[in-house]
Specification:
14 helices, mainly alpha, Na+/H+ antiporter like fold
Length: 291
């Protein structure tokens, strides 16, 4: 059983990410993805929130709240890793702007590839980060499926429509399976974090990240929701890659895994309680985006 669970976790993650990116490509065009990123103010604020405000806040928070060194390392890695592969799916859950979520994810993801190798060694001594090691799995699992989906969408609307239902089911299945498996695998770590107070740091991390992202995520409610969840949910894939290749202490990986899991669960719960955008709000948002 112990050998099956890690395999199920990998299958769930691969199914979730690939199906989400492929399905996103089937729904959008390159122009639709690019359009929200023409808002320079929104782009600058997105970069500021993810690469300056959140890392700085977490770094200062860990100076105030004493935690063990491995726990601190795990939180720092998560704070610096931006551009979550799950963002398009999370945007659907919170009824956000899918096109903006895709463009934002790619922008933050590529930013992380260059940002982490420069900044991480400055705050954590002895850590070595190779940009290509981060970029390679992201390209294979995310960019290529997205590009294939965009290509099919551009060539045949009927085929893209017929495939959307399948990819949506695969994406939801991967998300649900991944959450269940990780809850089972990391139940003991979650219990430990609850008893030693580290979960409190994690909660502050998530609340601050979502709040600052939401408040700076104009021009409309749907972009605010996307930047909120896109900031609160960090790039688990990049963080895990760096954690496993640079640290022998299992507590570093545990913090990364548990924080990512709690971030995902928080977003899913949040999305269930958010109201749908009405036609008036949607029209107002479209007008703001055009202007």
């Amino acid at each position: 059983m112990n050998e099956v669970i890690p395999i199920l976790d990998k299958i769930a993650f691969l199914c979730f990410v690939v199906a989400t990116m492929f399905g996103t490509g089937l729904k959008l065009t390159v122009q639709e993805i690019w359009q929200p990123l023409r808002n320079i103010r929104l782009v600058v604020l997105s970069l500021l929130v993810n690469f300056v405000l959140v890392p700085l806040f977490v770094y200062l928070l860990l100076q105030v709240i004493p935690v063990d060194e491995p726990v601190k390392d795990g939180f720092i890695i998560m704070a610096l890793a931006s551009g979550p592969p799950a963002l398009p799916k999370l945007a659907q859950i919170v009824k956000g702007n899918l096109a903006f979520s895709t463009g934002l994810m790619m922008m933050l993801m590529f930013g992380t590839v260059f940002y982490m190798p420069i900044v991480l060694p400055l705050v954590l001594q002895g850590v070595q980060v190779n940009s290509w090691d981060i970029a390679k799995p992201l390209i294979l699992m995310m960019i290529i499926p997205l590009a294939i989906g965009l290509f099919i969408k551009s060539k045949s609307e009927n085929i893209s429509l017929s495939l959307q239902a399948i990819t949506a089911k695969l994406s939801s299945f991967g998300l649900l399976l991944g959450l269940v498996v990780r809850l089972i695998v990391h139940f003991s770590e979650i219990t430990v974090l609850l008893t030693n107070g580290v979960i409190f740091v994690c909660a502050i991390f998530i609340v601050f990240s979502f709040t600052v992202g939401y408040l700076l995520g104009g021009p409309g409610i749907d972009t605010q929701r996307v930047l909120g969840v896109g900031t609160a949910q960090r790039n688990f894939a990049a963080a895990l890659l760096i954690g496993t290749s640079n640290f022998d202490d299992p507590n570093v990986i545990s913090v990364i895994m548990v924080t990512s899991l709690l971030m995902m669960v928080s977003v899913v719960i949040l999305g269930k309680n958010l109201p749908e955008l009405d036609q008036g709000q949607s029209a107002e948002i479209e007008q703001l985006e055009v202007s």
